[in-house]
Amino acid sequence: MTDNTLPSRSHRLEPDSPRKRRGVAIFIRDLLIIFVVALLISFLIKTFLVRSFYIPSGSMESTLLVDDRIIVNQLEPALVPVSRGDVVVFRDPGGWLPAQPPLEQNPIVAALDWTMSVVGLSAPDSNDHLIKRIIGLPGDHVVCCNTLGQMSVNDIPLSEPYAQLPAGETSVSKDAFDVVVPENSLWVMGDNRYDSLDSRYHPNAPGKGFVPMDNVVGRALVISWPLERWSWLDDYPEVFRGVEEADK
User: Fold this and answer.
1) Could you tell me which InterPro entries the record lists for this protein (predicted)?
2) What is the pLDDT of residues 160-175, one digit of tens each?
3) Is the CB of residue 200 less than 8 Å from the CB of residue 177?
4) For residues 125 and 238, is the Cβ–Cβ distance under 8 A?
5) What sign has the CA pseudo-torsion 207, 81, 180, 98?
6) What total number of domains does the chain contain?
7) Structural domain boundaries, residue 113
8) Any domain includes 3
9) Does the annotation mark 42 as catalytic?
10) Exposure string for 96-125, b = 16+ CB within 10 A, e = fewer
C-alpha cells in the first residue's frame, strides 16, 4: 500500500534563527537612517529657512507676550528684503543687552536642549537676541513726536494701532528724537512704547541705536505657542502707506 503522507514543510522560524536576527538588524538600521535623515533635514531647515524663538520680555506687548514662541523666516533679509512694519529678530548690535550669566544645566537636560535646538524646537540663545518692529529703513527720516503725539517717517505721520501706551498717554514715545537711518541699518522700536529699550535708548552703543542689517536673523512670521495664541504677525502695510512715495 502506497503511503500518501506528504513530507512536513514547516515554515515556522525559531526565535533565535539567523533570518529573524537579520530582519531585526535591518529594521534597526532603517530606523537609524530615517532618524539621521530627518535630523539632517531639520538642521538644514533650522539653519537656512526657519527657526523658533521664545519671547523673554514684555517689550513687544501686546503683540507678543512673555514666553510666546514664534517662527522666524531666516530668508529675510538675506534673500528677501524686509519692510517697514516687519517684526524682526536680531543679534545684539552691542550694548543693548546686559551680560548674561552662564546657564547651568545638568548634562541630560543640556543634551536634550541641544538636540532640540538643532532641529529648531528649542531656542537656548533667545536671551542673546532681541525682537522689535522696523520703523525706519536706510535713508528714512524718523521723527517723534508731532502735536498729536504721532511719529513720522519721511514727513508722513503714522497712526500705529499696534503701539501700546500707558493709560492717559497719547504720545507714541516718551522721549523725542529726530534721526536719519544710515545705509544698511534699521531703526527699530518695541510695540510696548514706554517699556522697550530699543533704538531710542542706545545712542552711545556701537551702532548709535541703529541695527546693522547683517545682525538681522529673520522676520517673525507666526506665534506658534501657546496654541490659543496661534496667529500670523501683521506688518501693518496700511500704517506705512505713502512713506514709499515720500522717500522717492
Assistant:
1) LexA/Signal_pep-like_sf, Pept_S26A_signal_pept_1, Pept_S26A_signal_pept_1_CS, Pept_S26A_signal_pept_1_Ser-AS, Peptidase_S26
2) 999 999 999 999 999 9
3) yes
4) no
5) negative
6) 1
7) 38-98+106-243
8) no
9) no
10) beeeeeeeeeeeeeeeebeeebebbebbee
Distance from C-alpha of 61 to C-alpha of 131, rounded to nearest angstrom? 11
Residue at 1 is within a domain? no
Catalytic residue among 52, 59, 171, 185, which?
59
Nearest C-alpha neighbor of 67 from the set 197, 226, 238, 221: 226
Could you tell me the three cell numbers for 139? 535713508
Give me the pLDDT at residue 32, please. 77
Out of 17-21, 94-98, 127-131, 148-152, the most confident range is 148-152
The single residue of 46, 52, 132, 196 carrying the catalytic annotation is 132
List the grid coordinates of 88.
524682526
CATH number, domain containing residue 121:
2.10.109.10
Annotated catalytic residue 132? yes
Is residue 236 one of the residues assigned to a domain? Answer: yes
Task: Give the C-alpha separation, 33 to 40, whole Å.
Answer: 10
pLDDT digits 0-9 by tens, 117-176: 554 555 555 568 999 999 999 999 999 999 999 999 999 999 999 999 999 999 999 999
